[in-house]
Amino acid sequence: MADHIELKTRGEFQAMRAAGLVLAAALDAAKSAVRAGVSTADLDDIVATVIAAAGATSNFRGYHGYPAVICASVNDEVVHGIPTADRVLAEGDLISVDAGCVLDGWHADSAFTAHVGSPPSMEEVDLIAAATDAMWAGIAAARSGGRLGDVSSAIESSVAQSGRRDGRRYGSVSGYGGHGIGTAMHMDPFVPNQGKRSKGIKLVDGMALAIEPMLTLGRHQTSELDDGWTVVTRDGSRAAHMEHSIAITGDGVCVLTAVDGGAAGLAAYEVVPVSLD
User: Fold this and answer.
1) 234 to each of 38, 75, 219, 238, how far by Cα in Å?
2) CATH 3.90.230.10 corresponds to the domain 2-269
């Protein structure tokens, strides 16, 4: 697998950073629009408009026949929910929005989960926080000279730690996870959300990864609906999905799809992201 992993130059990372900032703006616009009465198709239109205005294109629409610009997964839908005009958000819903774009041949991929409307239950506050913490723990563990298992182990350990803190056991979805990214959206290596430290391929300067934990308020098992895309929890529990694309350099990591490069999210891990300027 290592022979098939694409390595980028600093200039190519800068191009990926430009794509990542376009996507960050698009997802920020979508997040600001999340409210009761808004359809998932409305959110799709918002993201599509921001991406197009920046001169970028969607890398989701048409991917293996996927029909939309975003994946909009509501409540027990974990990933790959298809946005439609008749899927209207209601007070109390939980929605995950996943999107990507390509600019000048370079791809970006990112996702967020948000509650709709009135203050969420504490278990959903905790679920989103646990997924967010797991993502940042994985990103903080990614460094040149380390191993892919360091990232996976950090994600898994963070989920367990959040469960102990919150007094519940989160389902950490397996079979779906992060991936390499660059001149294509999905590339080697696959990045599991469970693993062992010091195992797996060596991480080196020039790698770009998408880190994306998916957690549930119940069991980890999932099923795919008849549409061939939407993945749901088997037990009907709600799910959260967080994702950022990152660049690994000899000097450190840069979160390509975060406006601040990852500074705020990485601060708790005493990791300072590098600038690609």
Assistant:
1) 27, 12, 8, 10
2) yes
DSSP 223-245: EE-TTSS-EEETT---EEE-BEE
Start-to-end C-alpha separation, the chain: 30
Which one-letter amino acid corresponds to residue 61? R
| Count of alpha carbons within 13 angstroms of residue 199, beta-carbon side | 10
Q: Over the stretch 152-189, which tens digit does the pLDDT of each residue have?
A: 999 999 999 999 999 999 999 999 999 999 999 999 99
Question: pTM for this structure?
Answer: 0.97
**Of the candidates 207, 197, 204, 111, the residue with the CA atom closest to the CA atom of residue 156:** 197
Per-residue model confidence as pLDDT tens digits over 21-57: 999 999 999 999 999 999 999 999 999 999 999 999 9
Domain boundaries, the chain: 2-269
78, 176 in Cβ contact below 8 A? yes
Cis check for the bond before 119: say yes or no (omega within 30 of 0).
no
Could you tell me how many helices (H) and strands (E) the chain has, helices first?
A: 5, 15
Question: Across all residues in the chain, what is the average pLDDT?
Answer: 97
